[in-house]
Design brief:
By secondary structure, the chain is α/β, with parallel strands linked by helices. It is built from eleven helices and twelve strands. The two termini are 38 Å apart.
Length: 283
């Protein structure tokens, strides 16, 4: 997920967010600013973290008024600290007021995810293991949240259900067995698609390897069993471990030797980064 891909799909989602906040008019702004007046406002950091989503922040105001202008002193991926002036926005004061909350909602959320991801990814430095996100994203925010994970130094797992095959416990239950699930996936899916399957113990892993899975997800297994699992795999498939992985407990997994660690917490548990638009005035 890169910024171009994100922005190609962003306008409809941003407009929906704006319509959620402005159903007919911004009655507060229109009462104090009934006519056009040029102004500017400062984007200021109130907390240390990683910035992500400046193009989305910018696009919110541009969709309200294409003549809004921006001067940024940081870029996505940069670290900011409290009181840093991230940028200045100039335009119709009515637009600056009406777009403020939606623009900050995106930027704070995305920057929070990038910041949390950076902290977790740093704990894997020096290992071969890559950090992955999941589909545990906020509805209608996935494209923004997965982009933020990339900015923070993480990697994207499949984007959605059309993007890759991941046979989980209920798929296995529907198919009747691991062997049947993998067989049916191989028969249905294009040959260019890899098949990943979730296993919960070493017996399931053995069956998955014999069935020809390309990737095995070691789900909620103990670190000891995961080490045994990596030894069993011996290059026959790629390995991913998953199951309530957070910043606080990921260190227990760093020496297991899996190819990937996935963490839903990157998107569902990251706090926002505190940012603010301040010092609005006419120019």
């Amino acid at each position: 997920m890169n910024s171009i891909t994100m922005l190609l799909n962003a306008d409809e989602l941003i407009l929906s967010a704006l319509k959620e906040d402005i159903t007919s008019e911004d009655i507060t702004t229109n009462s104090v600013m009934p006519e056009y007046k040029l102004g500017q406002v400062e984007l200021i950091a109130k907390q240390e973290g990683i910035i992500a989503g400046l193009d989305v922040f910018k696009r919110v105001f541009e969709l309200l008024d294409k003549n809004t202008t921006f001067e940024f002193y940081f870029k996505d991926g940069d670290k900011v600290k409290p009181k840093d002036l991230i940028g200045i926005v100039k335009g119709d004061i009515r637009v600056l007021l009406s777009g403020e909350r939606t623009a900050l909602n995106y930027l704070q959320r995305m920057s929070g995810i990038a910041t949390y991801t950076k902290e977790v990814a740093s704990l894997l430095e020096g290992t071969k293991t890559k950090l992955l996100d999941t589909r545990k994203t906020t509805p209608n925010m996935r494209i923004f949240e997965k982009y933020a994970v990339k900015v923070g130094g993480g990697n994207n797992h499949r984007y959605n259900l059309s993007d890759g095959i991941l046979l989980k416990d209920n798929h296995i239950g529907a198919a009747g067995s691991i062997t049947n699930a993998v067989k049916m996936a191989k028969e249905y899916a294009p040959f260019v698609r890899k098949i990943e399957i979730e296993v919960e113990n070493l017996a399931m892993l053995k069956e998955a390897l014999e069935a020809g899975a390309d990737i095995v997800m070691l789900d909620n297994m103990s670190p000891e069993d995961m080490k045994k699992a990596v030894e069993m795999v011996k290059g026959k498939a790629q390995t991913e471990c998953s199951g309530n992985v957070t910043r606080e407990n990921i260190k227990r997994l760093t020496d297991i030797g899996v190819d990937f660690i996935s963490s839903g917490a990157l998107t569902h548990s990251a706090p926002i980064l505190d940012l603010s638009l301040k010092n609005l005035h006419a120019i």
